[in-house]
Write a structure and sequence with these properties.
Strand order of the largest sheet: 1-7-6-2-5-3-4
Oligomer: single chain
Keywords: Acyltransferase, Membrane, Transferase, Transmembrane, Transmembrane helix
Transmembrane segments: 12-31
Helix content: 40-55%
Number of helices: 10
Domain Phospholipid/glycerol acyltransferase: 72-186
InterPro entries: Plipid/glycerol_acylTrfase (IPR002123)
Protein name: 1-acyl-sn-glycerol-3-phosphate acyltransferase
Amino acid sequence: MIVLRSVLFNTAFYLNLILRMIVLSPYYFLASHKNAWSVPKNWVRSNHWLLEKIVGTRFTIEGLENIPDGGYILAPKHQSFWDAYALLPWVRDAVYILKRELMWIPLFGWYVGKMRMIPVNRGARGKVMAAVLDRTREEMAKGRQLIIYPEGTRRPPGAEPDYKYGIARLYGSVGVPVVPVVMHPGLFWPRRKFLRFSGHFKVRILPPIPPGLDPDVFLQKLIDVMETESDRLLVETIEANPHLPLPPTAAKRYLELTSGAPAPSSLPPMPPSGSAI
């Protein structure tokens, strides 16, 4: 059944994306920047609905009161494609720093360009990166919200933390609060896997870290608060969803956090191979 539900959801997901991009393009490109946000945000809401109705995956957001007014950096855990877009409806005017190659994809790149995202050549150094920082400061000065993943790329649930210094460099450069976010959607929408799993998980928005700290002090504080709360939420999520097949990283971390108690899953660990999407 989970295979059938995953097939149906993945099919509906991409049809929903393609049809909306084609049908809503005239409105999107003619509307103001503010009004055009309704197109991607409604697409996200529709995907949340599809995931709940087809797969049976639900989520709850805690800590919305911790989101400040104006510009800030949103720093979520990144485990799956889900968390690349899922929080957009709760962010007023998001901006991403993304691979410049994405801007070259027909239609998708035009959509991204409309929202004035910041393209970057990941292999670039020196003046090019300084220009990216300048552009980021320019967008943040308009009161926008930068979404950036402190570990840079998707990491499996329970994996050893691997924070990059880039977020500390941005923090020291733009002078806005950083809002940490922890969650474990990777247990339900695993990275590079075709299957989707039912259940319920929480997205926990933590109190913002104010601007003005030394970047090194900030980074250590960010790691401490995110990893402490992420571990707590990992145990909660696994125990609330005992049917989930756990990836090895999550099963190992759960054992460490619960002093050797076996994970509640009744299924064997997820095999390492799977269909990429």
